[in-house]
Amino acid sequence: MHEDRLSLKLQALADPTRRGMLARLAQGQATVNELARPFDISLPAISKHIKVLEKAGLITRSRTAQQRPCQLSPSGLKEIDDWMDAYRAMWEQSLDRLETYLATLTKEEKS
Q1: Which of 15, 34, 49, 54 is the most exposed place for a label (fewest CB within 10 A)?
Q2: Number of domains in the chain
Q3: Does residue 83 register a pLDDT over 70?
Q4: First CA to last CA distance, the chain
Q5: CATH number for the domain that contains residue 102
Q6: Cα dihedral sign, 50-21-29-11
Q7: Structural domain harbouring 26
Q8: Spatial distance between the Cα atoms of 110 and 91, rounded to a whole number of angstroms
Q9: Which tens digits make up the pLDDT trace of 12-71?
């Protein structure tokens, strides 16, 4: 079954371990061992999480000697942000209308 890129990204973000890894990578690139340090899971499990993030396009890996450091992929995160923009605009409009309504109620109470 073919999954769309956005679904892969959202599925990758559904796991708290992977979100923690992304938070760490927001500080700069890291090796597998550095990403594994705060988690009480095996290195093979960490590698599986990294593969999910890589497949989703949220991270990239480079090669430095024998290490393969990971880094965030800004373009992968941008696709999620673009998708969320439509919903963000809708909620902002709804909250603006609520704010106007509440201001009207407050004004009527004072009158």
Answers
A1: 15
A2: 1
A3: yes
A4: 62
A5: 1.10.10.10
A6: positive
A7: 5-110
A8: 28
A9: 999 999 999 999 999 999 999 999 999 999 999 999 999 999 999 999 998 877 778 999
